[in-house]
Amino acid sequence: MPPLKRTRRPSHTKIVATLGPASSSPEKIKALFDAGVDVFRLNFSHGTHDDHRNRYDLIRALEKEFAHPISILADLQGPKLRVGTFKNGKIELKAGQAFRLDMSPEPGDETRVQLPHPEIFAAIANDADLLLDDGKVRLRVTKSGKDSAETTVVAGTALSDRKGVNVPSVMLPLSAMTEKDHKDLAVALEMGVDWVALSFVQRPEDVEEAKRIIAGRAGLIAKIEKPSAVHQLKKIIEAADGLMVARGDLGVELPLEDVPSIQKRLIAKARSAGKPVIVATQMLESMISAPTPTRAETSDVATAVYDGADAVMLSAETASGAYPVEAVVMMDRIISRVEVDTYYRSQISGYHPVLQHSTSDAITAAARQVAETVGAVGIVTYTTSGSTTLRAARERPQVPIICITKETKTARRLVLSYGVYPIPGFDPKTFNEIVLYACQITQEHNLTRKGDKLVITAGVPFGVPGSTNILRIAEITE
Predict the structure, then answer these.
(1) Is 212 a catalytic residue?
(2) Is 223 a catalytic residue?
(3) Which terminal residue of the chain, N or C, has fewer Cβ atoms less than 10 Å from its own Cβ?
(4) Whether residue 248 sits in one domain with residue 120
């Protein structure tokens, strides 16, 4: 790729933006990129395959125009558990009234409604709670059978057609991937997306199933939105390539007061494992219809940045909102302001993951320390698989991580990671070639100037994942 035409975002925390009806024209996608988007999300819960192909092609054209890798994330819908319809479209409920859920396709009324999911009936027991319409309605099971359940309304006053159903604290006998997801995944992989986000993850086996299908063609992000996934977090992190803190369903199925601490734990665990983590859902929700966010939303984004997330995500704000570009600009402003705060740096520097007893971890940790000591303006990593760069990102250095790789695919995937600035297309034969190229290419990308220092790491022999074993300080002399 030729030198980048756009000035680099100085922030380390990345921005993920969802494309949709409000943001699918070439002009709008370019404006979002100019405003600071690093990763574009294609939400397969909405739109057709042709819609997503068109958006994918526009992003790749933009990538070529700006000569800078752009990451594309395909987000699979997962199983959607919903009630059926009502005779009049909606009903009124009262606390304490009896309400039946069954398999009959007949339109419902104030006494019953269809629940076309036998898996739920098979999993629930008496006294289990069912949450409908994002928790606005709570039902308690009084009697359950193989194809129906008698319940009592605990809370909620209204219910309308096809509202969602959550079953907290119950492991449902469902795969994370539906027939639709299998088709969507095939299309996404055929297009060439860089990441796939898997919804409805309940167990590590869900991640392993999806990874077998993906077969290395994209990175796999496990969306943590079920309590059962939180309980099996260690194994899920081991199986996945990254995490998404999907706070929407987490906030329905778990007490709301638990979500902030779970968010912090997920970020810390993902960072410790050296895998990128995205914080998502309702970050600047009011900007769907207003040109500015609330103070609480501003604090919410800032908290994710203070916690050390790799990326923060916009959903409906950019997909269908009235102010998609303004939402990205606001998110970038919040990130930039937090990252120059001395408290932020003390927070980030105050925690470093426990290192493995390996040369690679030792060299990577030393690179951060050396960069701080000599006042280097960047840490250069040469990688084929991405593992060297991910180790560097885990350390959360104060300076950019300039990733040099021969693989465009690797560069695109690493765009998501904290502080990483990827430059693809260089295939060195020796470490000295890397040093000379790093000094040259960083000047062309306006990352360095004469007199600046770089800390450079790589693994020899090249192409062996996890073999980082060289560190050198280089000074820009021309």
Answers:
(1) no
(2) yes
(3) C
(4) no
